[in-house]
């Protein structure tokens, strides 16, 4: 059982955080717990002493333990964590307390990896919605599952002696993951032969890259999906992707930051630094304690001049917004999509006792033009903060920031106070909830049908056989797994006979069916990451980004000219 004084120690740590903190929230600082603390900000100004605090907390815990109906079975870790989190969230929504387990997960996420076997899995249900089993859908290049020979269609029968049949994929996933160096003894049933095979897999680090896809959309136009957050490998991944795409003839670039929740600001700085001229501001950090306020500017004497469009949406946050805001303010990139989330607070980690960690907001970010990125949190309501006061339906999407107006280098008006507004708004396509539920039901016959076709159990589709290991790093073309009229008709018959759908129901979702059939085939042959290339073919935001590349090139020229003129004017003064 954890000592009651731990909570007191953590609270004192909050009140005695040292003045010096790393400007970039990457290294972990050590906080020493003092015997007393200074005045509470915003409070009465009286010092809070360790003895008083520990006495009050201990008394409260004693009363709970003696009188609460669950007092004999208290979970101190949960009690302490909820107490500290509640205290932090009165300050801002992004200061958080991590217990020892969560801290390890946090550190792992910053290394762009997790520990497991390295496979994408999915379950298959019958016509009544009952899960039959979970299957391997793809493995990752050189991951333990790939080295062990696991392949698309392998049914996961057992893991370490425990039956996995009938379990949904998220339960099976927990059995497959585990500490590095431990063994996962997996029994699989090969779909093609129905033979059982026992595979012993030593769990290892599995890469979760920041860049999920980088390929040529069409001649001259490259695409980089930087959707996996900003981790310690982000910039090196970006450099490799740019080199590869330029080798394939890239002259224009679409950088996809949709659903990128941020991470290490240093990595976002380096990506922005690639495109901005020496001396151009990338972001400004402002804090209340001396040393926290600083301007970070480009030091690149030879910036990349590739015309650039950046895609953003409501889940683009933090470091992603810093990158998008910097390139927008300097007119270096055209921003397309939806208003970003609006998270512009600087967090720094502090080690605490028992392997725990405090992630505390120490400053705020501004874009080069002086825009505040952070959205409003004045009412202290977390639900309102994350949903914009609603359910995030169409009517509740984040609105255009209404903060102070600022000017880009070329004189365009931009606004702060709640994220980055796109230069061209293109909403994410939405469908009614009931239709989405029906589409999810169609995924079971789609998966089952592709399994049969891939392993030759449906005649007449030899070109779609995928009874082989995954071929990685493949850029799909129209010749890869087209869905013919005959294949669609065969699927419709399969869905009607095996899953009790009607022909009318299937035909009403024909585009969805054809897209998902092709996605599933591409997954089986080239892996789950490559399968997103199929979705991009139907993406209106991406299509608009490609259409606007000439405008992005013109904007960059105007921005560069305006910056050069302003620099000359400053030098004359």
Keywords, separated by commas or semicolons:
six-stranded mixed β-sheet, 21% strand, alpha+beta, globular, 573 residues, 24 strands
Describe the structure.
It is built from 17 helices and 24 strands. It is an alpha+beta fold and 573 residues long. It folds into 4 domains: 5-110, no CATH class; 116-207, Pdz3 Domain, CATH 2.30.42.10; 211-345 and 362-428, 2-enoyl-CoA Hydratase, Chain A, domain 1, CATH 3.90.226; 433-538, no CATH class. Strands 1, 4, 16, 17, 20 and 21 form a 6-stranded mixed beta sheet that branches. Strands 13-14-15-18-19-24 form a 6-stranded mixed beta sheet, with helices on both faces. A hairpin with a 5-residue loop joins strand 20 (345-351) and strand 21 (357-366). It is globular. The model is unreliable at 14-43 and 390-396 (pLDDT under 50).
**CA-CA gap between termini:** 68 Å
Mean pLDDT: 87
CATH level 3 topology of the largest domain: 2-enoyl-CoA Hydratase, Chain A, domain 1
Proportion of beta-strand residues: 15-25%
Q: Low-confidence parts, pLDDT < 50 over ≥5 residues?
A: 14-43, 390-396
Structural class: alpha+beta
CATH architecture of the largest domain: Alpha-Beta Complex
Q: Count of helical segments?
A: 17
Helix content: 25-40%
Q: Give the C-level CATH assignment of the largest domain.
A: Alpha Beta
Query: Quick one: CATH superfamily of the largest domain?
Result: 2-enoyl-CoA Hydratase, Chain A, domain 1
Q: Based on CA inertia axes, which overall geometry fits? A: globular
